[in-house]
């Protein structure tokens, strides 16, 4: 069941009176200037605020199709665009957002999310973010591009490990760096388990 979102009208008014794409932050700032949303701080309060805005945006996205408008939703570029029923690109974008749309249209995700849930979400985000940094650093150690696949990683590791192995006169510290980089990539690469 989709409940009517109290900030939906204000967001629609802002979108219809703005030519440039808006960021999620700009929409929230506008809602705060109208005193339509709480100024509370803390992770749970910010989660709830973000949820309300995203819920309103996804409700509007569905409703605006009847007006031949498509609401393009991205955290950095939210804008209204003309919609043509035959526009395959627009339909593909809408279908790709389906799981996100379903999440934000389900009020239970707002009411049932606790402070601990938000902390877990944030921790998961930061772990993924940091693991991405570690992956890039590891690829650099193995002299590989960012789009290297698991086969390339294995080949480069074998080549560099053989070249820098202490038993073959290589530098022990460089060999350790190569081994650590390989282990990081082994843990982060999803195809690793299927290929090793």
| Biggest β-sheet strands, sense, barrel | 2 strands, antiparallel
Strand order of the largest sheet: 1-2
Order of helices and strands: HHHEEHHHHHHH
| β-strand number | 2
Q: How much strand?
A: under 5%
Q: Calculate the mean pLDDT score and round it.
A: 85
User: Radius of gyration over alpha carbons?
Assistant: 24 Å
Tally of contiguous helical segments: 10
**How many domains make up the coordinates?**
2
Distance between the termini: 46 Å
Instruction: Supply the helix-strand structural class.
Output: mainly alpha
Keywords: Chaperone
Pfam family, one: DNAJ_related
Organism: Spartinivicinus poritis
InterPro entries: DnaJ-related_N, DnaJ_domain, Hsp70_co-chaperone_J-domain, J_dom_sf
How would you characterize this protein structure?
The protein is mainly α. It has two domains: 8-113, no CATH class; 118-195, Helix Hairpins, CATH 1.10.287. Helix content is 64%, strand content 4%. The protein has ten helices and two strands, in the order αααββααααααα. It has helices at residues 8-16, 24-33, 43-64, 88-96, 98-105, 108-111, 115-141, 150-164, 172-188, 192-195; strands at 69-72, 79-82. Strands 1-2 form a two-stranded antiparallel sheet. α7 crosses α9. Mean pLDDT is 85; it is low at 190-196.
């Amino acid at each position: 069941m989709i409940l009517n979102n109290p900030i939906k009208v204000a967001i629609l008014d802002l979108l219809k009176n703005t030519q440039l794409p808006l960021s999620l932050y700009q929409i929230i700032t506008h809602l705060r200037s109208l005193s339509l949303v709480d100024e509370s701080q803390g992770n749970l309060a910010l989660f709830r605020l973000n949820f309300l805005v995203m819920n309103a945006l996804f409700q509007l996205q569905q409703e605006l199709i009847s007006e031949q408008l498509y609401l393009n939703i991205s955290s950095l570029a939210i804008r209204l665009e003309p919609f043509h029923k035959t526009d395959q690109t627009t339909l593909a974008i809408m279908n790709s957002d389906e799981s996100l749309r379903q999440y934000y249209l389900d009020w239970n995700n707002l009411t049932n999310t606790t402070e601990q849930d938000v902390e877990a979400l944030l921790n998961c985000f930061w772990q993924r973010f940091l693991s991405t940094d570690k992956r890039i650093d590891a690829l650099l150690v193995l002299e590989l591009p960012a789009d290297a696949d698991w086969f390339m990683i294995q080949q480069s590791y074998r080549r560099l490990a053989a070249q820098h192995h202490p038993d073959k006169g290589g530098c022990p510290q460089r060999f350790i760096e190569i081994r650590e980089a390989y282990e990081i990539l082994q843990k982060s690469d999803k195809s690793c388990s299927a290929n090793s």
